[in-house]
Design a protein that fits this description.
The chain is mainly alpha-helical and 147 residues long. The protein folds into two domains: 75 residues; 59 residues. Helix content is 74%, strand content 0%. It is built from seven helices and no strands. α3 runs antiparallel to α4 and α4 packs antiparallel against α5. The radius of gyration is 15 Å and the shape is globular. The N and C termini lie far apart (45 Å).
């Protein structure tokens, strides 16, 4: 099924990014790009959550991980922006995590002028959520702003 193959390719790309393997990261993420472009068709319930927004988030995290390991040249902020634009209404926790990731990426990319308003938006979203995961991502944001 295309949806399953795209999900596996996207997540495999993330794993390779965490390992600092830029070549295999891009190979798997590009495979997911192609599958998404061709259409995912009917997907079973257990994989129906995977869509272009989820994949854009995987690309963003992969770019961030590769950059932090010194293995990437891409800008994670571009992919976080894309993920936020593609997110459907009702995914506030994921949106908050993307906003936090975007903010951290902007600071790490030397763009504090863009990072500050993004931080305000991330904090506005996060304060309305009761999520341990979002709270832990805020620590990522704090680390990025120290520099």
């Amino acid at each position: 099924m295309p949806a399953t193959r795209a999900l596996v390719a996207s997540q495999t790309g993330r794993v390779h990014a965490a390992l600092g393997d830029a070549r295999n990261t891009e190979r798997h993420l590009a495979q997911a790009d192609e599958l998404l472009a061709d259409g995912l068709g009917e997907a079973p319930d257990w994989v129906a959550y995977f869509d272009a927004a989820k994949h854009a988030g995987a690309r963003a995290v992969s770019a961030r991980d590769l950059a932090s390991l010194g293995a990437g040249r891409g800008r994670a902020s571009v992919h976080f922006h894309e993920a936020l634009q593609l997110r459907a209404p009702g995914f506030e926790r994921v949106k908050a995590m993307d906003q936090i990731g975007l903010t951290a990426a902007l600071f790490e990319e030397g763009e504090p002028e863009q990072g500050v308003p993004a931080a305000h938006q991330a904090l506005d979203t996060a304060t309305h959520l009761d999520s341990t995961l979002v709270a832990s991502r805020l620590n990522t944001l704090l680390d990025a702003t120290h520099r």
